[in-house]
Design a protein that fits this description.
The complex is a heterodimer of chains A (408) and B (310).
Chain A lengths: L2 H14 L2 H27 L5 E7 L9 E5 L10 E8 L3 H10 L4 E5 L3 H4 L3 E4 L4 H13 L5 H8 L6 E4 L6 E4 L1 H38 L2 H6 L4 H34 L7 H28 L3 H20 L1 H6 L4 H8 L4 H11 L4 H29 L9 H9 L5
Parallel strand pairs in A: 1-3, 1-4
Antiparallel strand pairs in A: 2-3, 4-5, 6-7
Chain B lengths: L1 E12 L2 E12 L3 E5 L6 H8 L7 E6 L2 E2 L8 E4 L11 H11 L4 H14 L15 H13 L5 E5 L7 H16 L3 E6 L2 H7 L2 E6 L2 E6 L1 H7 L4 E6 L10 H8 L4 E6 L4 E5 L5 H11 L2 E6 L4 H13 L1
Parallel strand pairs in B: 3-8, 3-9, 6-7, 7-8
Antiparallel strand pairs in B: 1-2, 1-4, 4-5, 9-10, 11-13, 11-14, 12-13
Helix pairs in contact in B: 2-3, 2-4
């Protein structure tokens, strides 16, 4: 087994055995599912019940239907529910109040004599179905004026249907809820997962390097391996941790989505791109983090320095609205090409618009180049930094060592 | 055969020269002591032997070859600044250290268990590092140093922080390694241990060699013909009277006198017999103790460092 593999395996197992890792990897999607599923389940259970309402028509011109049955929408595997409202005519307010008090009715409305002038009706009790009563009144008002069809159109003048023309097949296809979900939700979820995995893996790296430096284990390690082998082993081992996390989370996301939102279709090319961007983005951020860990004198100091890079990488999340609503704007294009932000920003853009292929290619190439340059320079600084105790190298030291790595 | 050959090595940090043209060689199978005060350049020298840092000029050969990555597997290193993964288990860490030295997992495991028995730590092999005392952690680190049966063992201040019982145990293990033909480089500022264990000594101060050779040779080099006497009436002020000192100084062969608290050191010229001087002394003052002054390595160390400072 090569020394890089030994370091990588040890780093991988060290994190995998930690309770926090298990909690984060399994707990995070579980929490996500719970947070998403519980409101849906509660909503489905707490759908409108059957109720009885009273009405007092002081104008004596309205006739309410005895029962109105409503069909609510289905949520994932939970089938659609129905509820029925029953309307009873009442004559006096006092009598209605008694029925309300005794719980025989849920509420009642009074249509006053001047309703036609003011449009005001008075309501008592809970859960008054305002829209339903509004429809009943419109039906009554239009009954002798127009036919049923026109009446329906007056109540619902527009039902908008959106279409798209497929660029490749020229086929016209109706756009629906699945398109909205797939366009926005999927890239968004993948981008957020990517951000979390890149930063949690890089976080382990900076923590590990700072701990080894602070506790001086680094001296023992460097008597067996070179700084390059150590850095490579750590990046590979902890990158594997990130990949495991990403796989688990994507799997959970796909399973949960297909269960609750059957319209949700994961696009395979997006998943492949997610892995490409993960590897490159992780390589870049991880090298930054390892370098910071090596030049810091304590874990606390390294975390403070790492905050600067985290801020840069968090920009796509801050500009998410622009990326989603104006994906072709200059800012969106910049964020999806700039290496620190491109992994997350490009995935969001791909979901929101048809990103030209050359932009995706440019983004990946710039990321590869940046990761390579950062790795070369980072390894040089890492080599100098890990053996410096008690003091942080100056900017001059870092520049000198970057130019001439043999000048420790 | 030579285990280490250092030739005209120079190393600077920024504009400060920390190793100034140092050359020495370490024979295979010997215990070689590198001595020096704090900041003398010992750790820099050791790091160069381990190829952790490169010399600006000069050459370093380990077992006849410039140090290469593969040579690291032949070296066991116990640094002065020590640490272990606090949350990891003892055996697990040792197996990892062994594997980093290209051992198989099984070999590393077996060797770690054997050495844990030798170092009286077998019962705690599955404990976490932070559950052990500092001394025990230090022994674990020493096991990590010799776990892969290295030909060259480099130990930096191996006894610091150890109690007398564990110091004795560690000395025994070091001597066993020597008997097994291993070459040991021991960096320390504890002179007693260096005198007791080392076959050859190298003292560096401010990056320069100030003393190099066998302990006996060094003692001979720094031998002073002097005697120490403790007068019977020490403490009443009489012996330090100028009259007494003047009479002692008049003894033939006495070149100088140093007056310490309860004793006096008389420096003699090389030809003078100390017994003849003693006979004359007892005619001047009554003494309760007389001894030939033998400088300890510690004295030599301090005097050399002082000379360097002056």
């Amino acid at each position: 087994m090569s020394k890089i593999t030994t370091v990588a395996m040890y780093e991988f197992m060290k994190i995998v055995k930690r309770k926090e890792f298990m909690l984060m990897t399994i707990g995070f999607p579980l929490l996500f599912v719970i947070v998403t599923a519980i409101p849906i389940l509660l909503l489905s259970q707490a759908g409108p019940d059957d109720h009885v309402f009273g009405y007092i028509d002081k104008m004596e011109m309205f006739e309410f239907p005895e029962n109105v049955t409503n069909l609510h929408s289905s949520i994932g595997p939970i089938s659609a529910k129905t509820s029925t409202n029953t309307y009873i005519r009442l004559n006096r307010t006092y009598e209605s109040s008694l029925l309300l008090k005794s719980g025989d009715i849920r509420g009642f409305v009074i249509i006053p004599e001047d309703y036609m002038e003011t449009g005001i009706i008075n309501a008592f009790g809970k859960d008054i179905p305002t829209e339903e009563i509004s429809d009943i009144l419109v039906d009554n008002l239009l009954m002798d004026v127009t036919d049923e069809e026109t009446g329906l159109r007056i109540k619902e003048p527009i039902t908008l249907k959106r279409y798209t023309v497929d660029e490749k097949t020229d086929k016209v296809r109706e756009l629906g809820l699945p398109d909205v979900i797939n366009k926005i939700a999927m890239p968004f979820i993948i981008a957020v997962l990517l951000f979390i995995t890149i930063f949690s893996s890089s976080g382990y790296l900076i923590q590990g390097v700072a701990e080894e430096k602070e506790s001086k284990i680094i001296e023992i390690l460097l008597s067996s391996v070179t700084t390059g082998q150590l850095l490579a082993g750590k990046i590979i081992g902890l990158g594997a941790i990130g990949l495991v996390q990403l796989c688990i989370w994507l799997l959970v996301s796909i399973s949960a989505s297909s269960m609750f939102l059957p319209q949700f279709a994961f696009k395979i090319y997006l998943i492949i791109l997610a892995f490409v961007y993960f590897l490159l983005g992780y390589m870049l951020i991880a090298t930054f983090m390892a370098t910071i860990g090596s030049i810091s004198s304590s874990l606390r100091e390294s975390q403070q320095l790492a905050g600067l890079f985290t801020f840069a990488a968090i920009l796509p999340l801050m500009f998410m609205q622009i990326l989603l609503t104006k994906p072709d704007s200059g800012m969106s294009v910049f964020l999806s090409i700039f290496p620190m932000t491109s992994p997350v920003a490009m995935l969001v853009r791909i979901g929101s618009t048809n990103v030209p292929f050359y932009q995706i290619l440019a983004s990946i190439l710039i990321l590869v180049l940046s990761a390579y340059i950062v790795l070369i320079i980072g390894a040089r600084i890492f080599r100098m930094g890990v053996l410096m105790y008690g003091k942080r190298p100056t900017i001059r030291d870092i520049i000198r060592f970057t130019i001439n790595p043999e000048s420790e | 055969m030579t285990a280490i050959e250092v030739t005209h090595v120079i190393k600077s940090y920024n504009d400060t020269e920390v190793i100034r043209d140092i050359s020495f060689s370490v024979k295979k199978g010997e215990i070689f002591g590198i001595l020096g005060p704090n900041g003398a350049g010992k750790t820099t020298m050791l790091r160069m032997l381990l190829d952790q840092i490169k010399p600006d000029s000069g050459t370093i050969k380990i077992f006849g070859e410039p140090i290469k990555l593969k040579a690291k597997d032949k070296i066991g290193y116990l640094p002065e600044e020590r640490g272990l993964y606090q949350k990891s288990r003892i055996l697990e860490i040792l197996v990892y250290f062994g594997m980093l030295k290209s051992m198989s997992k099984t070999d590393a495991h077996d060797s770690a268990e054997k050495l844990l028995r030798t170092m009286e730590l077998y019962d705690v092999k599955n404990k976490r590092v932070d559950e052990l005392s500092k001394g025990m952690q230090q022994k674990v680190q020493f096991i990590g140093t010799i776990l892969h049966n290295p030909d060259l063992i480099i130990v930096d201040e191996p006894f610091s922080g150890l109690d007398p019982v564990n110091t004795r145990l560690l000395k025994r293990v070091i001597m066993e390694q020597k008997k097994a033909g291993k070459t040991i480089v021991l960096s320390t500022h504890m002179m007693e241990q260096a005198t007791e264990l080392c076959d050859t000594l190298l003292m560096i101060n401010k990056g320069k060699i100030v003393m190099y050779g066998k302990p006996g040779e060094i003692m001979d080099k720094y031998y002073k013909n002097s005697i120490i006497i403790e007068p019977e009436d020490a403490g009443d002020g009489d012996i330090s009277s100028s009259k007494t000192i003047s009479r002692l100084r008049d003894i033939a062969g006495v070149v100088d006198i140093k007056h310490h608290k309860r004793e006096m050191e008389l420096f003699l010229d090389d030809e003078t017999d100390e017994n003849a001087v003693l006979r004359e002394i007892i005619e001047i003052i009554k003494i309760k103790r007389f001894e030939h002054s033998v400088p300890s390595l510690n004295d030599i160390f301090i005097s050399i460092v002082d000379e360097g400072t002056e």
